Amino acid sequence: MNLENKRVTVTGGRGFLGHNIVRILRVNGVEVSAPQHGEYDLREKEAVRKMLSDTDPQIVIHCAAKVGGIGFNKERPGETFYDNALMGINMMEGASRYGVQKYVQLGTVCAYPKHTPEPFKEENLWNGYPEETNAPYGVSKRMLITMADAYRQQYGLNTITLLPVNLYGPGDHFEPEKSHVIPALIRKFHEAVGQGLNSVTLWGTGQATREFLYVRDAARAVVSALQHYDGAKPVNIGSGQSISIHHLAGGIADKIGYYGEIKFDSSMPDGQPRRQLDTTKAKELFGFEATTSLCDGLDATIQWYKECAKYL
């Protein structure tokens, strides 16, 4: 798809991933609308219709989501399922009725079954139930994949679905309630240094593995898929490399200058035991490969946090 003279609306366009997508589009001369959080309640059909009428898009990129770390998912499973499902349903229905030319929805690695052979291949997505703490979020996103297939068949809506891994980078959520593992670790170790603590306790065993993708690489992947991919099948978006939480924590502690003891509380959940994507299809279908190493991405994220911590 040639984006020249196209009008694009990005839900969640002021958020962590969304504002990076908006920036890439605007640099390339695309007319982008990024409604503010709270301006339209996407859980309400009429609000979605008004947003589409106000922004008049030819393309919609649906990034808006209610999401957090393991603690958030454990405390708010109903809210997580309801809000994400309803926003996605209303947005896709609205986009179809409004006649948009292309609809991009962001899924999640949490949709994969709890025990999936590594690296996770897209065809394994339906071979089991997601890890319990992630299930409400993951299943809400799975449901939208089925909806996308149905709307493609009945209404001809060109919907593509991307499945990103854990994102991180400058501008991430560092609030304890919302943060994922990398911002949570950065904040914990930074505060431990400031308070002179001799030990820090982390959730889980430390043996779980995670794959991480720098947010600006993720935004580039979304724009590349928008331009070059029109398929019905979901596509993984990641770096293709994983690391244990134990090794990740040690690396972040070293970068921040925390040299105390790191303890793991095995009575708390690990989340999904292992997580690493097969990213072959993203490269084949729309030429995406991650270019930011975890080391460089962590350096940039830590630097941003140190500069902004007093404002967070």
* Uncertain stretches of 5 or more adjacent residues: none
User: Total number of β-strand segments?
Assistant: 11
Helix content: 40-55%
What CATH architecture label of the domain at 7-169 and 211-241 and 274-291 applies?
A: 3-Layer(aba) Sandwich
Strand content: 15-25%
Radius of gyration: 19 Å
What is the fourth-level CATH superfamily of the domain at 7-169 and 211-241 and 274-291? NAD(P)-binding Rossmann-like Domain
Q: How are strands sequenced across the largest beta sheet? A: 2-1-3-4-5-9
What is the subunit organization of this protein? single chain
Strand/helix succession: EHEHEHHEHEEHEEHEEHEHH
First-residue to last-residue Cα separation: 39 Å
Text of the CATH class of the domain at 7-169 and 211-241 and 274-291: Alpha Beta
CATH topological fold name of the domain at 7-169 and 211-241 and 274-291: Rossmann fold
- What integer is the average pLDDT? 95
Tally the helices: what do you get?
10
> Structural class, judged by helices and strands?
alpha/beta
Note the overall shape: globular
Quick one: biggest sheet? Answer: 6 strands, parallel
